Amino acid sequence: MFKALLVNEENGTYTAEVTDLDESLLPEGDLLVKVEYSTLNYKDGMVIKGLGRLVSKYPHIPGVDLVGEVLETNSERFGVGDKVIVTGFRVGEIHWGGFSQLARVRSEWAVRLPENLSGHEAMAIGTAGLSAMFGILALERHGLVPDEREVLITGAVGGVGSVAVATLASLGYRVAASTGRPEESDYLKGLGAATIVAREELSTPGQRPLESERWSGCIDAVGGVTLGRVISQLCRNSSVAAVGLAGGGKFEASVMPFLLRGVSLLGIDSVNAPLALRETAWRRLGSDLPKQLLASMTSEATLEDLPEMAQQILDGHVKGRVVVKI
């Protein structure tokens, strides 16, 4: 038997509670993992509350991230006792996830826990931090280097934004952090932000297709109107990495910045990223994200806390990262 947070649906009503389950109920997979930690993401909040039609079959165990020890394996890549991280591939959506003491997963979804990260640190990073690093890597591939100009991070108080701010600042970039929570300005400056940008500066449509060149690059976790506005303010030959849609899935922008400034819009897929990219991103996070800053943006929760915290993260009231101790 093992404990897990089980979500049920009956006549359109969703419930979530910690339950004892038999191991025989676990789905198919070539790795059986004893889960040590998971983490709470926005998507987990949606699954727990039954939003977005992300889950097709109930009962269901959420948790898009997990780290733990391999108990059983039919994979040539991993042996019993190996520590692995599992993210993406719709784990926690169409496949039972990490809010559970045991998880059976496919080995191609897993990467080995880097030597420079603990399991707790890996889940403090989680899919949100991994997405931030995917964005940084994409911007670097398109020419981003530290200089006197500012790199913009939108939704900066959230998980993606917090990791992006701390990592880029540690790499020598001048970081501008955009947020709708001015009371968190000291938190963002503590992570390394040089400038705090009020959400309202970016959340209303601009009047011109080309505004003053302002950003040497951007990691955007907001989408919507904000993304369109950022594109109009990018410096020549710079890029924005789109990693989220907290502000909406549609945006309006002019083609003028692309034609007259050579800017780029880079899509970040954190769900189906190839193995080599995931391994590179985890190594970079282990070396480039200061551990003390990671600790300062991290809180801890239990399985029993998650039903209440799910609504909090959906309402934008969760700061930084939440590690779930299993």
Task: Kindly summarize this structure in a few lines.
This protein is of the alpha/beta class and 326 residues long. The chain folds into two domains: 2-113 and 290-325, Medium-chain alcohol dehydrogenases, catalytic domain (Quinone Oxidoreductase, Chain A, domain 1, Alpha-Beta Complex); 127-267, NAD(P)-binding Rossmann-like Domain (Rossmann fold). It is built from nine helices and 15 strands.
Tell me what the structure shows.
The chain has about 325 residues and is of the alpha/beta class. The chain has 2 domains: about 1-115 and about 290-325, Alpha-Beta Complex (Quinone Oxidoreductase, Chain A, domain 1), CATH 3.90.180; about 125-265, Rossmann fold (3-Layer(aba) Sandwich), CATH 3.40.50. Helix content is about 30%, strand content about 30%. The strands form 3 sheets. Strands 3, 4, 5, 6, 7, 14 and 15 form a 7-stranded mixed β-sheet that branches. A 6-stranded parallel β-sheet has the order 10-9-8-11-12-13, with helices on both faces. The chain has a two-stranded antiparallel ribbon with strand order 1-2. Strand 14, helix 9 (about 305-315) and strand 15 (about 320-325) form a beta-alpha-beta unit. It starts with a strand and ends with a strand. The model has no long low-confidence stretch (mean pLDDT about 95).
